[in-house]
Amino acid sequence: MPLYADILLVRHGESEANAAGRLAYRTWDPPLTEAGAFQAERLAKQLITAPVRYIVTSPLLRAQQTVEPLAHIHHIQPIILDDLSEVDLGTWDGRRLKDLESDNLPDFRAWRQDPEANPPPGGENIVAVGERVLSALSAFLKTCQPASLTVGATHADCIKGAILVVLKAHGPASRHISVPNAGQLLLRYFDTGRWVLIFSPLCHAGEEDQDLD
């Protein structure tokens, strides 16, 4: 049987950008809100008995803060992987979603329908995001102990993009994927290069009703 390693991808907790309904990548690196900090603490408690061996994170503050309590409990130093960072939002970076919606921009409407074919002006498409995320994770997991568990803090579109790539799906399918703050997805990576989605009790369904972009 091929060797494998597991990674639990976690979307960061609620950030100040989420609370404000703003997109954030390059122009703003917001911290977690009080609710987001609570979600981070809850994640650590959920995984207190899990066999976590490694922790990786996006370089953005909200992701790093999300795994801080978990890292403290398991005495693990998180490793920053730049390619787990947020989707490049191009000219929309820092803007409020409500403003983009009220402007009724054709580019925005097209992105809502298919973020693969219609990325933000000057930004990334969602499948390219998924490919860079999985490439970074596969390179990291190849260095890990077999059958080990890694927790990785990242962003909603990074998780959506990874799912699309694993399932060989296309951009419009991302509109049917919900990734709430602190939402979790377990992936298994085999040494043959194959990825598998795993249904696991480690995964926790979010309780909050949120805007998921």
From TrEMBL:
Gene3D superfamilies: Phosphoglycerate mutase-like
SUPFAM superfamilies per the UniProt record, alphabetical: Phosphoglycerate mutase-like (SSF53254)
GO cellular component: cytoplasm
GO MF, one annotated term: phosphatase activity
Keywords: Glycolysis, Isomerase
Annotated InterPro entries: His_Pase_superF_clade-1, His_PPase_superfam, PG/BPGM_mutase_AS, PGM_Phosphatase
Keyword field contains Isomerase: yes
UniProt KW Isomerase keyword: yes
PANTHER family given in the database record: BROAD-SPECIFICITY PHOSPHATASE YOR283W-RELATED, HISTIDINE PHOSPHATASE FAMILY PROTEIN-RELATED
Protein name (database record): Histidine phosphatase family protein
Organism annotation: Sulfobacillus benefaciens
